[in-house]
UniProtKB/TrEMBL annotation:
This is TRAF3-interacting JNK-activating modulator. The keyword Transmembrane applies. Keywords: Coiled coil, Membrane, Transmembrane, Transmembrane helix. Residues 349-390 form a coiled coil. The chain crosses the membrane at residues 407-429. It comes from the Eukaryota. InterPro entries: Cent_Immune-Sig_Mod.
Length: 467
């Protein structure tokens, strides 16, 4: 019994004992010699064929049966032999065990080489010292061994792939050769039938058949030409459609890139507008805090003005009382203490007049400060109202996200950028403007410092409390 692969190599014809052999098979003196890939030779008697073991009906073909039936039966037998399970004793075992042994031997050799090259000598102290050069050599050896092992693995993988490819290619070759043998047998049978039919038919019938076949050939050629023309037309139409679609795709890609750039620009503008809104919110909060501080200062200054007015009234009343007392005292004792009293009264009057003058000055300064604070409050309120209007406009435009609103925002942003660029250009290319700005800033700083120092002086300690 031969296996599946061996059966692929042999075609047996039990009728006339004809053998269609593969090039690896030889017929020697009535015996069949199979040359296997692993140099195993199977000998069998030519009279005992493989077909005797097949459980097929009608294994003994009679010579009276037609040739087509014989060929079909032979093909079925060959397919059965090719498709059955390959369980034979003439095959060499797989190389898995050999590969394992080879790998174990290589591993043991590498381990022995590693132990041989390792030079570690224990010292009497109990510690083991290793030289740096030995370590470097050991690392080099290990790297080399790993590299070699990796190369061997790659080679093994490549060999496995090549063996699998060879097995697949060999199986494909055997199947192709089998099909080729079948086709050759069919061609021979058809040739034999053709010869028989030619012998039976007369020459006139043959000529008629030839003419009919030529006519059919012409018809088939015309049909093929028509189909080819249709195919070429369809191909040209498909190419035109592909070109139009490609152009449309290019246009769509360009439009998508354009819209993407517009989207990125609008996104950047929205981010900048959000930053401007945050800045305006911060400025609003600062203005609110400044307005509250100015209101507190205004209320304090008003209270101080009221207290100063009350003190002024009290001083006027005291001065009137003193005048009345002076008159009474002058009426009572004009003769006794005229000179002394006059001098004391004059001193007191001078003192009270000085106090009144100081209080009047303080009242005037407080009134001027109050007026300035009121102006600051009015300006801050105006700025607050302006900021509120701007915020309302911004919120209104955000509720209606139209193209006009975005254009307006872009225009405002461009105007702001132009203003900043103009100031920067003036700052860089117009030195008088730079000097004027620096002088204005220094004057404002000196005025603020003088005002704070003046208000923090002991003269105004009663009406001003520094922060």
């Amino acid at each position: 019994m031969l296996g599946g692969d061996a059966a692929d190599d042999v075609l047996l014809h039990p009728v006339d004992h004809v053998l269609l052999l593969h090039p690896d098979l030889e017929v020697l003196q009535g015996q069949l010699v199979v040359q296997a890939p692993l140099h195993l030779v199977v000998r069998m008697d030519s009279q005992r064929t493989v077909m005797d073991a097949l459980p097929l009906r009608g294994s003994q073909l009679s010579p009276e049966k037609p040739f087509d039936q014989k060929v079909d039966l032979r093909a079925e037998k060959r397919e059965y032999l090719r498709g059955r399970n390959n369980v034979t004793s003439c095959r060499s075992p797989t190389r898995e065990l050999n590969t394992r042994l080879i790998k174990n031997e290589l591993k043991e050799k590498r381990h022995l080489e590693f132990l041989r090259r390792r030079s570690v000598s224990p010292e009497p102290s109990g510690f083991v010292t290793v030289k740096e050069s030995d370590l470097q050599r050991l690392t080099d050896y290990l790297q080399e061994a790993l590299w070699k092992e990796e190369a061997v693995r790659k080679k093994l993988a490549a060999l496995q792939e090549s063996t699998s490819n060879l097995v697949n290619s060999s199986s494909k070759i055997w199947t192709a050769r089998c099909s080729e043998d079948l086709l050759r047998n069919k061609i021979k049978a058809l040739e034999a039938q053709l010869q028989v039919s030619l012998q039976k038919f007369p020459k006139d019938g043959v000529k008629r058949l030839v003419i009919q076949m030529e006519k059919q050939k012409m018809v088939y050629e015309e049909r093929a030409l028509v189909t080819l023309q249709k195919v070429t037309q369809e191909k040209t139409e498909a190419l035109c459609k592909a070109e139009t679609l490609q152009e449309a795709l290019i246009k769509v890609n360009a439009e998508s890139l354009k819209w993407q750039s517009l989207y990125e620009e609008l996104k950047l503008n929205s981010v900048k507008l959000q930053e401007n809104q945050h800045l305006s919110d911060d400025q609003l909060q600062q203005l609110h805090s400044q307005a509250e501080l100015s209101r507190g200062r205004e209320s304090g200054l008003r209270q101080e003005v009221v207290s100063l007015r009350q003190e002024n009234k009290d001083l006027h009343i005291k001065s009137q009382d003193l005048m009345m007392q002076e008159r009474v005292m002058s009426e009572e004792a004009e003769t006794r203490l005229a000179e002394r009293r006059d001098s004391e009264v004059e001193k007191e009057l001078l003192h009270t007049q000085e106090k009144l003058q100081l209080k009047e000055r303080e009242c005037e300064e407080l009134q001027t400060e109050l007026h300035a604070v009121e102006q600051e409050c009015k300006s801050s309120q105006a700025r607050l109202s302006q900021c509120r209007d701007e915020l309302r406009q911004l919120s209104h435009h955000r509720r209606r996200p139209t193209r006009c609103g975005s254009c307006w925002k872009v225009c405002l942003f461009l105007l702001f950028l132009l203003a900043v660029a103009g100031v920067a250009m003036l700052w860089l290319w117009h030195p008088p403007f730079r000097e004027q700005v620096e002088d204005l800033y220094s004057d404002i700083e000196t005025h603020i410092e003088d005002y704070l120092m003046d208000m923090a002086s002991p003269q105004h300690s009663g009406c001003f409390r520094p922060i």
